[in-house]
Amino acid sequence: MPRAILIGPPGSGKSTVAKALGRALECEVVDTDVLVEKQAGKKISEIFIEDGEPTFRGMESTVVLSSITNCKGVLSLGGGSILDSKVQQALIETSSPVIYLEVSIAQAAPRVGFNKDRPLLMINPRQQWLSLMQVREPIYRRLATFTVTTDSKKPTAVAEEIAQLIEVDAT
Length: 171
What we know:
Elements: E1 4-7, H1 14-25, E2 29-31, H2 32-40, H3 44-51, H4 53-70, E3 74-76, H5 85-93, E4 98-102, H6 105-112, H7 125-143, E5 146-149, H8 155-170
Helix pairs in contact: 1-8, 2-4, 3-4, 4-5
Pathway: Metabolic intermediate biosynthesis; chorismate biosynthesis; chorismate from D-erythrose 4-phosphate and phosphoenolpyruvate: step 5/7
Family: Belongs to the shikimate kinase family.
EC number: 2.7.1.71
């Protein structure tokens, strides 16, 4: 069972905050995007282009569900993984704290930029991000045990805030 599960949109800092939180909690860090890439033997953007989004989402769902069961440290989920109903149910049923990393478009845009490794944001990233958030934000909020904003904060400060929240929640 993970010590903490991080969810949020592209640019919220999930991967970076997960690493900082792993250091703070002295535990492993599992990033499901990295696991999908290892399993596929190629980058997520290549999976989207060569195999299509449905193939990627299927791989992602399998990896996320397994990680929710098997990870013992900090778990960082891909931004769209919460769209899968089985993943949503697993997050609702887990006793692990689920932390929604909230970020504004003003802060996310420079972080995401025109990153070709973010296939859903390649064309008009700002508008695409806003469209993604219309669908995803209510899901993030519903699944979250805690919401932590990452705007104008260093990853270590966000990690410290999360560590305090989950420590208090565990008592």
